[in-house]
Amino acid sequence: MEPFPRSGYAGGQIMRKPTIQDVARQAGVGVGTVSRVLNNHVAVKGATRETVLKAIADLDYTPNPHARRIAGGKSYTISVLLPVLTTEFYVRLLDGLETAFQEARYDVAIFPLLDRSRLERYLGSHTLAYQADGLVMATYNLTKMFHERRLRTQQPTVLVDAYADSVDSSFMDNVAGGRMAGEYAVTLPGALYAVWVETELDQLFTTRVFEDRRNGFLGALQAAGRAVAAEYTSSFDSLTARNTACTVLDQAQAAGLPCTVFASADMLAGALLDEVRLRGLQIGTDVRVIGFDDQPWAESRGLTTLHQPVESMGYEAAQLLLTRLNGYKGPARARRFEPRLVVRGSA
Amino acid sequence: MEPFPRSGYAGGQIMRKPTIQDVARQAGVGVGTVSRVLNNHVAVKGATRETVLKAIADLDYTPNPHARRIAGGKSYTISVLLPVLTTEFYVRLLDGLETAFQEARYDVAIFPLLDRSRLERYLGSHTLAYQADGLVMATYNLTKMFHERRLRTQQPTVLVDAYADSVDSSFMDNVAGGRMAGEYAVTLPGALYAVWVETELDQLFTTRVFEDRRNGFLGALQAAGRAVAAEYTSSFDSLTARNTACTVLDQAQAAGLPCTVFASADMLAGALLDEVRLRGLQIGTDVRVIGFDDQPWAESRGLTTLHQPVESMGYEAAQLLLTRLNGYKGPARARRFEPRLVVRGSA
DNA sequence: TTGTACGCGTTATCAA
DNA sequence: TTGATAACGCGTACAA
C-alpha cells in the first residue's frame, strides 16, 4: 500500500478523493451548506453558493453515490435491464436512455438479461441493480410477474419497448406497425405471405412485440377482405432465417408470382432479399418484401420497412422515470410511439 | 408515503429491508460477529456461525452494497466496459465473466462504450463505473491511454480480449489464430485471398485484434514461401461485407479458380459463402473459405473456422481481477488463449 | 441563512 | 472467540 495521507495535497496532487468535508473546509463553510448547494436547496445565499461551487471545482470534488444512498437520499443511479444486446435496436435505445439520464445527472448501469435466472438475481436481492434509484426494464412482458408480485419493485420502474398496466411505459405501437404493413401490402399485386419471429417458450419472460405486429397485419388484411396465403415462423438467427426464406419462396414460386412477403423483422427481410436474388428473381416485381425495424443497412439495400423512433422511445422512458424520481405519484402513464412506413424499392 | 415501521414485522411481512442489526438481534450476537460471518472470517466458532446463518436465512437478509462500500472500501461490484454488444462474442464473454464473479459473490454492471466520449465519462468522475471495486475493459487497446495517464485506474483493472503490458490481461492469441489459418491455407490448391476488418480511425480507441490475425496469417504464408494474391478490407456491417465478397470473387474468378479466402471474421465468411452460392460455384472445391470466430451458425453452414474459447477467456479475466481484489500485488499477468482450427466442409 | 450533530448500514479496531 | 464502538461520506433535522 502506498502512503495514504488523510489531509489534502501531496506534490500538488490530491492523493485521496476529496470529501464533502474537504470542500467545506476549502470554502470556509459547514458541510451542511455544501450539501445544500449539491442538492439545489433554495435556502443558500448566492455568494455562499458561488464560494462553494468554486471550492468544488478547485478540488474536483464529486459526491460519493454510495454515501448518498446510505444517508437515506438518492444515489443518482439508474439500472437498465436489457435482453441480450445483439441488435442495433438496443444500441439506439440505450442512446436515448443515456442521453436523457445524463442530462438529469443520473448515472446508468446496464444489466444484461442473458437468461431468466438473471432477472430474479438482479431483482431479488442485494444487487446494485436493485439498489438503484430507478429501474428501466426493456422489451420483456412482465405484466404477470407484477401481478403475481414476483416482481416487487420498491423503486420507480418504467418499461420500455413493453407494456404493463401497472407501471409507466414507453413503447412502440407494434399493432399499428403491423397494420401499416398490412394496409400497404393489400395494395400490391399477388399473394400475401408473412414471416414471424418465434417468441420464447417461457410465458413470464416473453415479449409481445411480434404477436402485436401479427395482430395488426392480419387485422388490416381482414379489413380489406384479404388473407395470407401462408404464415411462417423463424427464430432470430441468421441460419434459421435463411432456411425460412427458402421455404417461403419455394411455396410462393409453386403457387405463382408475383407475391408480397411481410417479414416482421428486418433481419428476416434481409434473408429473403438474399434468397430472392439467389433465385434470379426480381425484388420489387416478382417478390415484394416489407421489413420491420429500418436497420442501418435497410436504406442501401432498398428495403421497404417500418421505421421506429427508438431513441425517442428511450428518451421518453427516461423522462417518465425522472418525473417519478422527482416525486410524481400519479397513475401509470403509457407513451405510445408510432412507426413510420418507409417505402423503398423492395415493395 | 406508506408507514415506515422501524421495527421488524407487520402481518408476517418485513416492511423494511433487514439490516445487520436485525440479524444480530435475531441471532443473539453482536453485529461484529455477523459481519465476520458475512466476510468468512476465520475467528468464528462453528456453532455461532450456524446460528448467524440461520438468522440471515430467516430474515432473508442481504448486505447493503452501498454501506459496505462506505465502511470497508469494498462494494462487491465490478464494472465491465464493453464495446457495443452486437455480436455473439460479447454475450459469451459476459457469460464467462459473470459466472466467475458470481461464484465470488461479486455483482457486475455493464457500461457499453457506445463512443469514445463515454469512456472518459465513465472513468473520469464520480460514476458508478468508477466506484466499483474493479474494472474489466474489453477489446480496446488502451495501452497508450495508460501510458499517457489519461486512464488513471485507481482500482484493479483487467483487460480482456486486449493486451497492455502494464495491467493484467486475458486474451486470444490472434497472431496464432492467423498463423493457423495461414498454415492450413497453404496446403490448399489455388490462389490465396484475405479479407480484413477495418479498425477504427481513433488510435487510442482501436483494437489490435485484426492486425494480429493479419500478421499471423501473412507470417505463415511467408514461412511457406507463399503470398496472398490480394487483400481486402471491409467494415463490420453486413452490407459492406456483401460488397466486399463480390469484389473478392470478381477478382478471384478473373484470375482463375480454385482459390482460398481467409475471412478474418465469420461474418465476412458468411457473406462470402452467400456470394459463392449465388454465383453457382462450389464451396470447398471452387472456392474454399476459412473464417474466424466459430459463430453458432458456423457448424450448420459447414464453415471451416477458428474456434475461440471465449467463455474461458472471460472466466480467467475475472479470476485475475479477483486475485487482485484479494490483495495480490505482483506484476501484471497475461493469460493467452489459443484458438483451435475447426475444419468443416468450406475448406 | 448557516453550522452542528445525528443517523444511515456496514467494516474494522480494540478490549474483554 | 466475541461484543462494543469508532469510523466511512453524506443528508438533514434542529438550533442558532
Automatic annotation (TrEMBL), chains A, B:
Q: Domain of life, per the record?
A: Bacteria
Q: Name one Pfam family in it.
A: LacI
Provide the alphabetized UniProt keywords.
DNA-binding, Transcription, Transcription regulation
**Which InterPro entries does the protein's record reference?**
HTH_LacI, LacI/GalR-like_sensor, Lambda_DNA-bd_dom_sf, Peripla_BP_I
Q: Which GO terms describe its molecular function?
A: DNA-binding transcription factor activity; transcription cis-regulatory region binding
Name the Gene3D superfamilies on file. 3.40.50.2300, lambda repressor-like DNA-binding domains
- Tell me the PROSITE patterns matching this sequence: HTH_LACI_1, HTH_LACI_2
Which residue ranges does the record assign to the HTH lacI-type domain?
Answer: 18-72
CDD domains recorded for this chain? HTH_LacI
Protein name as annotated: LacI family DNA-binding transcriptional regulator
UniProt organism field? Deinococcus arboris
